Amino acid sequence: MRPSGRAPNELRAVKLTPEFTCHAEGSVLIEFGNTKVICNASLDSGVPPFLKGSGQGWITAEYGMLPRSTNKRMRREATQNKQGGRTVEIQRLIGRSLRAAVDLKQLGEVTIVIDCDVIQADGGTRTAAITGGYVALMQAINNARARKIIKTVPATSAIASISVGICNGEPVLDLDYDEDSTAETDMNVIMNDAGHFIEIQGTAEGHPFSDSELARMLELARHGIGELFSKQREVIGPG
Amino acid sequence: MRPSGRAPNELRAVKLTPEFTCHAEGSVLIEFGNTKVICNASLDSGVPPFLKGSGQGWITAEYGMLPRSTNKRMRREATQNKQGGRTVEIQRLIGRSLRAAVDLKQLGEVTIVIDCDVIQADGGTRTAAITGGYVALMQAINNARARKIIKTVPATSAIASISVGICNGEPVLDLDYDEDSTAETDMNVIMNDAGHFIEIQGTAEGHPFSDSELARMLELARHGIGELFSKQREVIGPG
Amino acid sequence: MRPSGRAPNELRAVKLTPEFTCHAEGSVLIEFGNTKVICNASLDSGVPPFLKGSGQGWITAEYGMLPRSTNKRMRREATQNKQGGRTVEIQRLIGRSLRAAVDLKQLGEVTIVIDCDVIQADGGTRTAAITGGYVALMQAINNARARKIIKTVPATSAIASISVGICNGEPVLDLDYDEDSTAETDMNVIMNDAGHFIEIQGTAEGHPFSDSELARMLELARHGIGELFSKQREVIGPG
Amino acid sequence: MRPSGRAPNELRAVKLTPEFTCHAEGSVLIEFGNTKVICNASLDSGVPPFLKGSGQGWITAEYGMLPRSTNKRMRREATQNKQGGRTVEIQRLIGRSLRAAVDLKQLGEVTIVIDCDVIQADGGTRTAAITGGYVALMQAINNARARKIIKTVPATSAIASISVGICNGEPVLDLDYDEDSTAETDMNVIMNDAGHFIEIQGTAEGHPFSDSELARMLELARHGIGELFSKQREVIGPG
Amino acid sequence: MRPSGRAPNELRAVKLTPEFTCHAEGSVLIEFGNTKVICNASLDSGVPPFLKGSGQGWITAEYGMLPRSTNKRMRREATQNKQGGRTVEIQRLIGRSLRAAVDLKQLGEVTIVIDCDVIQADGGTRTAAITGGYVALMQAINNARARKIIKTVPATSAIASISVGICNGEPVLDLDYDEDSTAETDMNVIMNDAGHFIEIQGTAEGHPFSDSELARMLELARHGIGELFSKQREVIGPG
Amino acid sequence: MRPSGRAPNELRAVKLTPEFTCHAEGSVLIEFGNTKVICNASLDSGVPPFLKGSGQGWITAEYGMLPRSTNKRMRREATQNKQGGRTVEIQRLIGRSLRAAVDLKQLGEVTIVIDCDVIQADGGTRTAAITGGYVALMQAINNARARKIIKTVPATSAIASISVGICNGEPVLDLDYDEDSTAETDMNVIMNDAGHFIEIQGTAEGHPFSDSELARMLELARHGIGELFSKQREVIGPG
Asked: What is d(CA D173, CA D188) in angstroms, rounded to the nearest whole number?
């Protein structure tokens, strides 16, 4: 029995609120139960130095948590003179995943930055950030196309992400904080809508996992990500 | 005529949403028109080293803006290895103002941190942060009293803040970004509910101001702050 | 009775020593009693990136205190990897105030940096820095005109600054450290020689202040600043 | 055909040189072909604050590259005032993996730091660091037992790591730099000697991977890691 | 012929102004011609962690230059988030040299920090700082003895320092900036009043120096340092 | 009697292993007994901004120690957000010394960076770094000439360095850590193969040294450096 009473293959209530803020080219609030992440996409002409003149665009991400998004207040990273290791790891993952959504060559020399800011945390913030970040990214691309900043329609594939894990010996989908903090294994899965893997990060926390446990977790992830693609389409439209 | 069509002494729509996040001891979303600031109060036992053993409590504030809270994306302070000068100035002002709300000696050795995070900016974020921060502070004190962490009822006075300025030669109340960026003079006023000043910061932007202009601006501020005290009381209760 | 025996509207002995150092384009040592600040103005061709090509000049300020300018040694900011919040606040204030002295458009694309370094502190260092900084600034402009770096005569107005406050219930002018550290209210006033305000920063330290107290403090400030304009003119000449 | 001429399931020449430096409690140079990493284990009494009094030990890792370990000189991290995101990610991975090797409760309140410094890089430095780091860790534990610093024999399981990937459409084992920089998918696998997974990190670089490609890569990893366990045992002894 | 017209073995005018600032336990302004350095000694009870409980005292130094102490404005180190390499080198040298003046064991557990701040630079700032720093140090020790903070009279030997060099092929004493910036060899010599060396740092700038040149430079240094000891005694008294 | 049993004028076993790493244009492992330093020279087109367009080249050095190169683990500088003062001092010394080896004007606009990384420390790491760094530098220059990046043959003179000191009252050559940590005087001497001094840095550690002691130390240094030139020539060839 899960603490939340959910079935092993049951997602939390997922909600996407588009246009959550008014200045960004793409903006969505994504909620997985009590986990709430603002995803804002900013479109900028120009690319980083290593791409100048390549004709290719760039997508990158930044991640942050409000100090009191968590049960116990965390120190604000801006006052510590650096981003922590966990933050850096997460924002690199979000950026890599979202770059897999778009043919950067077709994008042309523009940069899209996805800011993922957690205003309330209850487990699964990075997978929520990727899933919501994809929506903000598509909104920004549509915005750029409407304003003729992007002339072609770059080929894209939908990207979504969910966590799976083993809790009390049982593979489960979409861990909340209660489960995440006691899970024996924790795995984040990012897939595209062709059903292929973009990234898998599985970590044993005390209980090394077997081939069959891995297979069961990946099956759960595939199921959950399918539902997320539906949620994304409701907001973005048929594309 | 103001860009927003408001009368010179007219506030924007002000809205306070309590319990905006679920973990903090005090939490409110404050909106002044399009300006939206999350104010979270965190209660912690213990005080900074300079107050250890004094029997006195401490209240401090931190301020941040989401990178895309503004029309043009700002760099994230956590990635720049420091808080900017404007941020430091603002959070020092918020902290000083809110310390004036409570008798710190009666508070006992606890620390309350008020995090003010701007999720959308349209002028007046610091005065919104002080006005909303006072609400979050009172919620945290009530929480602490309910949990017997604070035994006495510390004497408090309500604190609110508003901006005034001179735009197109005319003194006006509660400047939005359009006005703020072109104002000849910009002044932030913080008052208590006894009608006295906690802090005044007036800056001429190109047009040094006279005694009579100062008097007119302070009169507008007093009027606007009176309305804010009503809004605060609706959320906090009669105290 | 004030600790120094001064009348409520009496300045400390004010002394300006021009050409205090030999390399800077403008240099003055300003003393308010035991408070001593070196103000050096450096003239540089070119402007910051945000003004390139605008034809407009720039004036900025930096502030520092020698570690043992104070009664108790402070840590050196250079060894702490950052300037403290108070330092940042003060140097932003000095810069804003001195930019109000000169028509930057007429200055042309040059930058003048005013370094204000406190070698001995006894209260009122920021107002001394502004008052002395104005002198160094005028010297640098005269130097630039003599060397034909500035071709026009930019319109300027004299700027001076003084602190006022309420000590033991009494409004007083030009607080020294003894008064400053126990004042109920502390206010820094910057005015131009047309008698208008450039900036007002008043902070209640435990005793919120009334309209009439504010009026009395501003009257004292106006009186003191008048004397400072005379002292400045003795050094700069009739202009 | 692989650039090195190796078969798809063929490791590079792996060499472990114990006691490579003389001061550390555990020290080994590990070579995978041209990749060379010094792994030094340092034993220290005491644990980080969050474990004080818990009776439990701690294992952590740091990772660095000599500036000219790579084909093009990299900037030295010590001169950049921070470790880069890649470095932080890698050293967190090494630390997590090696903590899975030892029952920290049985270790008692000691800390072992594993420094992994790359003196020459040709792909696979993080997996070499984990595989060599395990050897240095065991040497340090044996040293501590010989010196009676650790009284019990903490339960351990061997840990080793290898990279696999898809190059030119073909799953291959132990990618060198030539392969790594052009691979369609890159995966790092860490396993214990019971044949279970400690961590899996697979990233599609342009070519999302299927379930069957994943299965084939994991099979190659299992094969390679088996050989690494033999190499480790030759140096550590039967344990 | 030297640019200043001095004889090869002639010092610049050396002037020591005691009690230059009013808060420090020791304070002197030292001038070598146009080089002017404020040396403030701060006495503090307690010692750094590595000396706690040792019964031994500590002497350390910090060095800084006002941004416009030089002909061209330098960036302020506090705004660059670090002290430069030259600064660190110099303050380590000053600290080492002054520790050689006092028997730290007899000093007892107190710390004396010597702040050397250059307000005007014309070559030789580090040797001026050492020579003036010794005076400030002795004043602080006398102050501490008068206040019974130091009970014994710690054994001391006078320390002074001068630069020598080879300019236009000629060994000369006490280089000013004109000479320093073109010298073939530059050497800083620190000696005690027993005629022995505390530190020698000689650097060839383009012209490696011979044994006989070294001997001649050391002879000049010995001569100059003898004069400095007289100047120090005039200020400190016979000791 | 020295702790190592060596005669006062006896070097430790010195060994130079060329091509120690495979990517750098110059690479050597230098060993002085247990002291082991990797010296890698990296050749780069272009020069720092202050030399752009001058036609002159640049040589600089960086120095680091592996955390466990020492008996007790040191904190990694990259995790401390800065290089320590000792590191900065040493790398500036190495850079200055090696610039004296080459006529930078004849080098043309290329930069050579010498990375000196200590993998095992037992005293004398900076003198080993200079002596080995010279070899790596010459290899890089030969590499650049072979590849026609440098067209002329820049005039060079060999540079080597050794430490001398006074231990137990006796001048000795090439101090190891046991001697270094208890020496009364410690001196680093850098010479060229014309027998002239490039740099002398002598520091009294508790025992100020006399003229005759200085003379004896310099004589020992000259003897030791002569042997080092032979070792260098064996690796570099006749030049």
From this structure: 10
